[in-house]
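tool_call: predict_structure(chain=1)
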Amino acid sequence: MPPGDVRAFAKRDDVTEFRKVRIHVCDALELLVTSELENNAMRATSEVAATAVILVIILALAPVVFLLIHRMTLTIQNYALGLSKKTKELRREKKRSDTLLYQMLPKSVALQLKLSKKVC
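tool_result:
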């Protein structure tokens, strides 16, 4: 074989070897990318599922929370209304007792008693 033919043969072998290596690298890269994409897809699916579960729980509990808040608000309003009524009753009774006190004692003595002073 003439020397030029040997070089051409060597170049052909290099190109063939290069193609084999390139195909092997491409296959390995494809496997790596595919694997990474599958892992990312699985992770994303898990995250979406977890988010969906949390959303369902929140949506299920929201009416209960709103109902409890509504009941607490009603309880507070009823308590405030009852407190207001009791305050009015106490004022009315105080006025009544003051009137009775002023009817029974002289006004100066009644005022001294109301101020918790000694009456002489």
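agent: Residues 76 and 82 are 10 Å apart (CA to CA). Proceeding to next step.
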